[in-house]
Amino acid sequence: MFSATAYRTVREHVAFLDRSDRGLIVVSGSDRATYLQGLLTNDIVGLKSGTGCYAAYLTPQGRMITDLFVYELGDVMLLALPRPQKDVVLAKLDQLVFSEDVQLGDVTETFLATAIVGPSAPATLANILGLAADDLRTMPEHGNLRAAFEDRPVILTRTNDTGVMGFDVYVESAKADVFRIALVSNGIQNLDPETAEVVRIEAGIPKFNQDMDEDTIPLEAGIESRAISFSKGCYVGQEVIIRVLHRGHGRVARKLVGLVVEGETSPSIGARVMSNDREIGNVTSAAVSPALKKPIALAYLHRDFLAEGTAVMIGGAEALVERLPFVKTEQ
Fold this sequence. Notes:
Helix content is 24%, strand content 34%. With 331 residues, the chain is of the alpha+beta class.
């Protein structure tokens, strides 16, 4: 259930969020970067130790197998992705290793991820892990570093997919409960999933298996500026992406947009979006926004109805297309 207290806390101070819904794959070997470069949409070869990126893994038809975060840790790369996609991705990656010096490992059960998010996240986390708060404040997007908790290794990554500034902390599973007790002892409140969803939707960040799936082209979800490098060499699915951008001038049949809905109740997931008697799309995420004091939704709409301010109907309620994000926060 949505918590107004937790919402204020994450917006104004700091909270922690369970991230056990993530699958974790390590890629080692001297060819790991060039190997992934030909498979993922972003520039993996350009990553240096302590950096990372957001990317997608596509089929040859340009559809998404998953989205994921790639972190170069110095001696291995860590891939963080939706847990339901982990086994499929691991199997596909394994099938594509031929003569390359590449080894794959599933560390989903080895580490437990916890997000520490909110304006006070750098100072609070620095105190728990014995780090310099300024180093965390200035960590670049998708940056990473190694630390320790009770003399056990910790991986720390800068995160931006929760909707507020923060970090993902990967702690050995055996120490996960102790780490969370330390968070609570330092006054960090748990951010429940329902409230976390509201924050994510306000930020307009699409979530795989909800706002994106195996039928989605990244351009439809609007993630191309974050997930795709347009200067790198070939990758799986690139031909489709380039064709849409160059021949189609970037126009896709549908696109994910924000909707601000009249009334007090958020629309249901999957609700049809209408223009007069024409069905033009469907809702993928929805919530009542405390910041806007109105229901909001993420929805895919036909390309003729994407302009900001376009009026549509959802279940008898009028809604207006809104530019994303609904609420801007520091990242």
